[in-house]
User: Fold this.
Amino acid sequence: MSGWRIASRSTWWAHPARNTLDRATSSLPRLLHRRLDDFGLDVAIIYPSMGLFPIHFEDAEVRLAMCRAYNRMQSDIFRNTKTA
Assistant:
C-alpha cells in the first residue's frame, strides 16, 4: 500500500472520567492493588494501551529503544507494588 500512512491516536476508553477514584485507580499501581478485592479480583494483568505506540515506528533501532524504555518505565513503576 504505497503512499498510505496510518495515524495512531490515543484511546478514549483507557481512563474512566466520571468517578475520580476509578480514574486514579487506572493510573496508580498501588491504588489498583489495594482495590482488587473491591473488584472481586485476585490478580490483574495490565494491558499497555498507551504503551503500544512504539510498535508503529518504522526504524527498527528506534522501535526497539522505545519498547525497551517503556518496559523499564513500567518495571520501575510496579517494582514497589507489594504483593499479598
Remarks:
- Residues 60-79 form the longest helix (20 residues).
